[in-house]
Amino acid sequence: MHILVGADIPLLLFQVASIFVPIVITLSILTFSVWFLCGSFGAYPHSWFDGTSNCFVFSLMFSISVVVIACPCALGLATPTAVMVATGIGANHGVLVKGGDALERAQNVNYVIFDKTGTLTQGKAVVTTAKVFSGMDLGDFLTLVASAEASSEHPLAKAVLEYAFHFHFFGKLPSSKDGIEQRKEQILSQWLLEAEDFSAVPGKGVQCLINDKKVLIGNRALMNENGVTVPPEAESFLVDLELNAKTGILVAYDSSFVGLMGIADPLKREAAVVVEGLKKMGIHPVMLTGDNWRTAQAVAKEVCICLLLNSHPFVDSYHLRCITVFIGLLLFVRLALRT
Fold first, then answer.
1. Orientation angle between helical segments 232-243 and 293-303, nearest 10 degrees
2. Which of 63, 88, 232, 284 would you call most buried, defined as having the most Cβ atoms within 10 angstroms of its Cβ?
């Protein structure tokens, strides 16, 4: 019953039941006593009950009838059961409700904030483009990027590693799935370059040393922070990617810009339907993302979310409370892809 803690309606019903139930039990005992005493003194004929019964059983039947008829099922059972069923159905659909209080307050929600990656999108990033803007070979470029990203647990890093792996070894893999995985582990241990001093820069990308030269993989902020100049043609190509709702990853090697990759995270098929349904209910959907402005704007336009908050993906409770002050009761929706 911990799921009902804090819920106003069940608590009220429990208070009413705490008074109502003793009264019903008292009336039941009183009914039994009256009918038993009347039967004992012959106030009613013994023909009212058959030969297999007696005055005690006859009186007990009336007593039980009072309890059954006055049983507060709707008060003590129906409402808590409805709350438990609702939270159970929600859990089956991936919606976890903290308690009865949260379930009751959900009817007053007027803003729903969606995290973009993994909530509105599928969370399955795929590399769509890889382009080199220096004299480096494309294969060497992919090997460099994959070697640096191999130490990262970010979903985008896994997409980069997968793309580079298939670029080099797609035609050399066995046909069976088990064989592919086994062969893949062998190849990765021999193919990737050794990366040293790897570190992830929150909200910007990753950096490491390969062949004693610094490798930077991330966004514009990471490049600017390290004094790497992005050429105009690369910047133009990056803008085109962002306008098409793709995330651009910039790559620099030994303080020189090398190339970039475009990564797409497709929207979930039901995302637009859910957003439209919320609008019809009078609820305002909001998208919260740490992605660059153009990519975020393109995704918001595609899913028809009018209000867009561009922020860091790891938003703490303090910021959400500040948002609540301005826009009222809100619901924050996010799927945890990583710790």
1. 20
2. 63
Distance, CA of 192 to CA of 165 (rounded, Å): 10
Selected catalytic residue, list 115, 212, 265, 291: 115
Residue 233 · residue 133 · CB < 8 Å: yes
Q: For residue 331, give the nearest of 274, 299, 297, 283 by alpha carbon.
A: 283
- pLDDT-derived band at 312, boundaries 50, 70, 90: very low
Give the pLDDT of residue 317: 46
- What pTM was estimated for this model as a whole? 0.58
pLDDT at 16: 74
Catalytic residue list contains 197: no
Is-contact 94 267, C-beta < 8 A?
Answer: no
Residue 329 DSSP SS3: coil
- Give SS3 for 184: helix
> In the numeric block, which tokens belong to residue 6?
């804090």
pLDDT at 133: 92
- Residues forming beta bridges with residue 302, ordered by sequence position: none
Residue found under tokens 């670029």:
167
Domains of the chain: 2-94 (no CATH), 109-121+267-333 (3.40.50.1000), 126-264 (3.40.1110.10)
d(C-alpha 25, C-alpha 6), whole Å? 28
How far, in Å, are 59, 98, 104, 105, 150 from residue 2 at the CA level?
A: 39, 10, 15, 17, 44
Residue 147: CB atoms within 10 A of its CB come to 22
Question: Average per-residue pLDDT in the chain?
Answer: 78
C-alpha to C-alpha distance for 241 and 263, rounded to whole angstroms: 9
Contacts for 170 with CB less than 8 Å, ≥ 6 apart:
none
DSSP reduced 3-state for 205: strand
Pick the residue with more confidence: 16 or 198? 198
